[in-house]
Design a protein that fits this description.
The chain is α+β, with helices and mostly antiparallel strands. It has 2 domains: 127 residues, no CATH class; 56 residues, 2-Layer Sandwich (Herpes Virus-1), CATH 3.30.40. Helices cover 39% and strands 8% of the residues. Helix 1 runs parallel beside helix 4. One of its GO terms (molecular function) is transcription cis-regulatory region binding.
């Protein structure tokens, strides 16, 4: 089992994120592309087994580390025991949830020496990717579809003429998850200054053309549908003073 020496462990935000991404890729592969092989290896007759993702994008089903304490946090123990007692899809989803928890624990274990801003940046980078659970259960796809305008299902972002602007995301493949985030990575909320994120509702002012988190200006997707021309709080107050 590849755990690597802690002395040579990733140290910077970028190194830790690369480690996280590679381990995650291995686990996603085990639970999707290689799922039949993974299922076969999780024999309930065997001892406590764990699913490991490795920094080289590979995965492994193996016994837990013998060292106490281990060099890295350990994943969920005994994933094989429930295999035949649960619906296969539910079992895979449960392992996906535990795997997400393990991936985060490893990332922040490696980032123990990061400062506050570095930890925040690391989590922000991690949050750009869909969770293993979202990939395995297709939860992200259904969540995005439910929050989209019916007329913009095939578009990554929409601009509604004379009805305000809404940012939405309709990509479903894992590898396409961050495409629009690169395009809008410099978009900042006009209220809180936060960066654009594809999994949040945004609306743009038709006057100043700045973008805002819906939650920051107290506008929901449903409410936005009834707005013909959206004016942000700043533009609205300017008109009132004139």
């Amino acid at each position: 089992m590849e755990v690597g020496s802690i002395s040579s462990a990733p140290r910077t935000v970028e190194e830790i994120f690369k480690d996280y991404s590679s381990r995650r890729a291995g686990i996603v592969r085990a639970l999707t592309h290689d799922v039949d092989e993974f299922y076969a290896q999780c024999d309930p007759e065997k001892e406590n087994l764990c699913l490991y993702g490795h920094p080289n994008d590979s995965w492994e089903v193996n016994l837990p580390a013998e060292e106490v304490p281990p060099e890295l946090p350990e994943p969920a123990l005994g994933i094989n025991f429930a295999r035949d007692g649960m619906n296969r899809r539910d079992w895979l989803s449960l392992i996906a949830v535990h795997s997400d928890s393990w991936l985060l624990s490893v990332a922040f274990y490696l980032g123990a020496r990061l400062n506050r801003n570095e930890r925040k940046r690391l989590f922000s980078m991690i949050n750009e990717l869909p969770t293993v659970f979202e990939v395995v259960s297709d939860r992200r796809r259904s969540k995005e579809k439910s929050g989209m305008d019916s007329a913009s299902k095939s578009k990554l972002s929409t601009k509604r003429s004379s009805e305000g602007q809404i940012k939405s995301n309709s990509k479903t493949a894992d590898e396409e998850y961050g495409e629009d985030d690169d395009e809008h990575s410099e978009t900042l909320c006009g209220t809180c200054g936060g960066s654009y994120s594809a999994d949040e509702f945004w609306i743009a002012c038709d006057v100043c053309e700045r973008w805002f988190h819906g939650k920051c200006v107290k506008i929901t997707p449903a409410k936005a549908e009834s707005i013909k021309q959206y004016k942000c709080p700043g533009c609205s107050s300017k008109k009132g003073r004139q």
